[in-house]
Amino acid sequence: MIERLLPVAASAHAATLDAVLLGIHWHMLLIFAGWLVLFIVILIKFRHGANPEPRQAGARTRWPAIAIGGVILGDVLILTTQALPAWSARVAPPPAAVTPIEVRVTGEQFAWNIHYPGPDGIFGRTDNTLIGASNPVGIDREDAAAKDDIGLLNILTLPVDRTVVIRLTSRDVVHSFTLNEMRVKQDAVPGMTTRTWFTPTVTGDWEIACSQLCGLGHYRMRGELHIVTAAGWAQWMTDEQARLTR
Known about the structure:
Blueprint: H1 2-5, H2 14-45, H3 63-91, E1 101-108, E2 111-116, E3 150-153, E4 155-159, E5 164-170, E6 175-179, E7 184-188, E8 194-198, E9 204-210, E10 223-228, H4 230-245
Helix pairs in contact: 2-3
């Protein structure tokens, strides 16, 4: 059922976060049903016909304490068995045995500037004075490590089944880098570099969104997310390298 209510779960950790969300909703549904039953019982038991004279005495049973205790117990169970383990897994770095692909993403009003390190896996030098329409990241091509770097505007292409680390920052105000299908949402803060990581498990084409109101043009701060096969990734990288030499 939950799959029909949420975007497609396209990352390795998506099922865990969806389970937390589902658990919270079931907990709230049980609370709602319990209090609804209690409300109906009170309406019947304390109706005017059965209680013609008002009484000041409150509830003398243990049911209110039991109900509140049940709510607290449910919250504790969700926190300890689902929410905290999911949070711990998300803030931990990728496993040491994994060699991730690293990408730098810089938010600005109103675009995502995306910097790939190229086939050598090393980020070259960048310079803000070099930023322009054809060089949105400001890659310094005079630097040997930067010659194969790729800088694109609003296009994030990644291979399926490969762990990806995104290094986030912002040039102006706070943005929120959001990939709904990957269950990724991380603030991009000016003057700071934050990290988020995920492993795509499904190929497809989706949207990069900004979930933080960042100005009058916030509505158009969109990008493209393309998850491709390993062969598609290799071909994309080849095509981008060929474009650099033209």
